[in-house]
Amino acid sequence: MAIDFKNHIRSIPDFPKPGIQFYDISTLLAHAGAWREAVHQMAETVKPHRPDLLVGIESRGFLVAAPLAYALGLGFAMIRKRGKLPGDIITHNYDLEYGSDTIEIQADAIKPGQRVVVMDDLLATGGTMAAAINLLRQVGAEVTAAQFIIELTFLNGRGRLDVPVQSLIAYDS
Q: Is 50 noted as a catalytic residue in this protein?
């Protein structure tokens, strides 16, 4: 019997601010059978992209990319917010709807030409993922796909991305 992953996502209204509907993956992570099946299904959709490495975006993207990298026998790299990574880093500034932000990757995390799939827990407007893809290309990665647990299709975030986009769950409103 197929698992309906939406049954394992907690919806929290007005978080982190009024008018926002927050989709909480912690309930999926806490359910061993559903989480195992989610990792299995995401692994199957990642394999055809033949990545050398999976990249997770801080912080819930780590929860997606790290177990998938382990399951597929791949390496894992992190994209983090400014000031969170030690050593030499490469920085990318990007605009948000209201302001700007900065993400970083360690300078030696990606070898030029490596094929990577970049992952996060949720695709909303696509701004952070687009910035991550740009940063990865800046360090020489070949970004082959973007993968998410949840996609808010009504925000059309995939329209901002120029790589194949895959998500386990879609919310249309």
A: no
Residues 10-19: what's their mean pLDDT?
Answer: 94
pLDDT at 97: 72
Chain centre distance of CA 84? 18
Q: Examine the pLDDT at 156 and tell me if it is beyond 80.
A: yes
Question: Are 131 and 103 contacting, i.e. CB atoms less than 8 angstroms apart?
Answer: yes
Q: Report the alpha-carbon distance of residue 148 to residue 26 in Å, rounded.
A: 15
Q: Select which of 37, 82, 97, 160 is catalytic.
A: 97
**Dist CA 165 CA 152 (whole Å):** 12
Quote the pTM value: 0.95
Alpha-carbon span 35 to 38, nearest angstrom = 5
pLDDT value for 1: 63
Given the residues 60, 80, 104, 158, select the one marked as catalytic.
60
Calculate ∠ Cα 50-61-158, nearest 5°.
70
Whether 80 is catalytic is: no
Q: Is the pLDDT of residue 2 over 90?
A: no
Quote the mean pLDDT of the chain: 96
Domains along the chain with CATH numbers: 49-171 (3.40.50.2020)
Find residue 24's DSSP bridge partners: 10
Instruction: State how far the alpha carbon of 158 is from the alpha carbons of 27, 34, 166, in Å.
Output: 25, 25, 9
